[in-house]
Amino acid sequence: MSNPRLLLVEDNELNRDMLSRRLKRAGFDALIAEDGAKALDRIESEKPDLVLLDMNLPVVDGWTVCKRVRANSEVAKTPIIALTAHAMPEDRDKALAAGCDDYATKPIDFPALLEKIRRLLETRGPAL
């Protein structure tokens, strides 16, 4: 069985590098997108098992990415975890309202993020 494929969408190179290395060490295949437009392309072409989505992205923001994914029947069920520095309750509500399945604030609590990833992958079941 192959490793679950996660798409990490993060415009900050240091965050992207650190998170992708930690995800790989945790047993995931980590795909990368640096902005929202690339994220949409990769989600449609690669069909990752889960998306870690920074909400404040260049080109197309995370809110829009999430709404477009949810509107695309081919990838609409893909679990999405919002990653954001905004930690107010209304920010979490906004991410969930945009279609995200869960929410993690920066700086990332990696063990908690892994738990969220594993829970969503178990809930989703095998990819079609």
TrEMBL record:
- Alphabetized Pfam families for the sequence: Response_reg
Domain named Response regulatory is located at: 5-121
> Which residues carry the post-translational modification 4-aspartylphosphate, per the record?
D54
Matches recorded under SUPFAM superfamilies: CheY-like
SMART domains for this protein: REC
Superkingdom of this entry's organism? Answer: Bacteria
Segments traversing the membrane: none
What InterPro entries does the record point to? CheY-like_superfamily (IPR011006), Sig_transdc_resp-reg_receiver (IPR001789)
What are the entry keywords? Phosphoprotein, Two-component regulatory system
Q: Does the keyword Transferase apply?
A: no
Supply the name of the protein: Response regulator
Q: Which organism is it from?
A: Congregibacter brevis
